[in-house]
Amino acid sequence: MPGRTGDERGIKGVRGEAAVAALRASIERYEEIRRAGASA
């Protein structure tokens, strides 16, 4: 049981990190587009 929960937590951790990285990238892209639109 403990080993299985550890594996699940590891998979969720990797997925969570990937989701956070994708979210940060999309936020940065959105802010860049907003800045470009405001300056244009």
Any key phrases for this structure?
1 helix; mainly alpha; single chain; 0% strand
Describe this structure in words.
The longest helix is centred in the middle third of the chain and has 38 residues, at 2-39. The radius of gyration is 17 Å and the shape is rod-shaped. The relative contact order is 0.09. The chain has one helix at residues 2-39. The chain has one domain. It contains one helix and no strands. It has 40 residues and is an all-alpha fold.
Short note summarizing the structure:
By secondary structure, the chain is mainly α. About 95% of the residues lie in helices and about 0% in strands.
Task: Summarize the helices and strands and which ones pair or pack.
Layout: H1 2-39
| Count of runs of 4 or more consecutive helical residues | 1
Overall geometry comes to: rod-shaped
- Model regions low in confidence, pLDDT < 50 over at least 5 residues: none
Largest sheet features: none
Q: Approximately what portion of the residues adopt beta-strand conformation? A: under 5%
| SSE run | H
Q: Tell me the count of domains.
A: 1
User: Which class of secondary structure composition applies to the elements?
Assistant: mainly alpha
| Number of extended strands | 0
Q: Roughly how many Å is the radius of gyration? A: 17 Å
* Ends apart, CA distance between termini: 58 Å
Mean pLDDT: 82
Helix content: over 70%
